[in-house]
Every structure is written in C-alpha cells, then in structure tokens.
C-alpha cells in the first residue's frame, strides 16, 4: 500500500469517525428528538466538512510541535489537583455569594508567561480559572492579565504552581529560577 492510498483510507476513517461524533452531538443537543433531523441532516454534514477542512492537516500529518506533547498519563495524575482546585473555587464563590460582608482586595495582576505560545499556554489560561479566586482576563503577548478576588502572594503562588503543573503535563522545562514577582504590582 503506497502512502497516497494509506492517506486516502485514513481520510475516510477520519470522516466516518467525525460523522458519528457530530451525529451523536446532534442527538445530545436535541435530546434525541428525531424531528430535529430535518435541520440536522444539513448541520451534521456541514460540521463534518468544516472540521475536515479546518483540521485536515492536523489529522493527516504527524505534528512535531515545539510547544510540547500532552502526556495522558500525567494528565490522569494531575486530574485530582485540578478537580480539587475547581471544588475550592466553587466553595469560595458560594461563600462570597452568601456572605454579608467580606473584606477583599480584588484586582488584576500581569503575569509573565514562561510557557511557549500555543496549546500549552491555552491549557494554562483555561486552567487558571479553576483555581480559587483567579480568572484569566487577557493575553498580551508574553504576559497574561489575571483577575484575582484577593490580590495576594498566596493566589499568585497558585498561578505559578499551575504553570509548573502545565509544564509537567507537556514535558516542558520552564526556568524555575525566573519566578515572576508579585511585589512590584502590589
């Protein structure tokens, strides 16, 4: 089997898998109402076509990214860390919602990113929002604006720890000696 035939078979398999996934998503979104297929018969194929068009090269060719390769085993090891912090964040938000009066120092800090740009930074940006009291606000080149309910060293240390966990997840080395400093922003 030559490379072109293998690629063609791979494309067919990818097309079939995506068609099944988008059909299942359509069923979930419409709660299994079969009459929704009057629209779904158009939406699903267009979605499959768009995904094949947008992500064709990513599926067909091996990616050698300089931004690291996700290690699923490490993801499983880090899952409790992220779930626990998500739970802490939810509890903190509920506590703030029901409290009559709490003294806080909310604000934003500029966090200099040490992770390479690309999917590793995206993971980091999204996972910061799982940390208690933090939310990614804006990406400005090599720095991230982070909103904190309480601007303090502890919350800032949590952001640094999260970045190190993402570096571990993608098997990347980030300079641990160059830890961003919060004191300049207080």
From TrEMBL:
Listed A to Z, the keywords are:
Cell membrane, Membrane, Transmembrane, Transmembrane helix
Principal location: membrane
> Per the database entry, which stretches of residues form a coiled coil?
none
Q: Which domain of life is it from?
A: Bacteria
Where do the TM regions start and end? none
Q: Give the record's membrane topology.
A: Multi-pass membrane protein
Its localization reads: Cell membrane
InterPro entries hit by this protein: Cation_antiport_E
A GO CC annotation given for this chain = plasma membrane
- Entry's Gene Ontology molecular function annotations: monoatomic cation transmembrane transporter activity
Family label = Belongs to the CPA3 antiporters (TC 2.A.63) subunit E family.
This one is known as: Cation transporter
Record the organism.
Answer: Pseudoalteromonas rubra
Q: What taxonomic classification does the UniProt entry list for its organism?
A: Bacteria, Pseudomonadati, Pseudomonadota, Gammaproteobacteria, Alteromonadales
């Amino acid at each position: 089997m030559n490379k072109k035939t293998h690629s063609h078979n791979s494309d067919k398999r990818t097309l079939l898998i995506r068609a099944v996934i988008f059909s299942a998503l359509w069923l979930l979104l419409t709660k299994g109402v079969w009459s929704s297929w009057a629209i779904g018969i158009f939406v699903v194929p267009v979605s499959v076509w768009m995904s094949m068009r947008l992500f064709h090269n990513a599926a067909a060719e091996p990616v050698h990214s300089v931004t690291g390769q996700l290690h699923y085993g490490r993801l499983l090891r880090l899952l409790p860390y992220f779930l626990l912090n998500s739970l802490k964040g939810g509890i903190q938000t509920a506590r703030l919602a029901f409290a009559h009066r709490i003294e806080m120092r909310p604000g934003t800090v500029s966090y200099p990113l040490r992770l390479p740009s690309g999917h590793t930074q995206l993971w980091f940006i999204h996972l910061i929002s799982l940390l208690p009291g933090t939310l990614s606000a804006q990406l400005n080149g090599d720095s991230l604006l982070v909103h904190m309910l309480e601007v303090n060293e502890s919350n800032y240390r949590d952001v640094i720890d999260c970045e190190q966990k993402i570096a571990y997840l993608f098997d990347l080395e980030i300079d641990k000696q160059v830890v961003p400093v919060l004191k300049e922003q207080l």
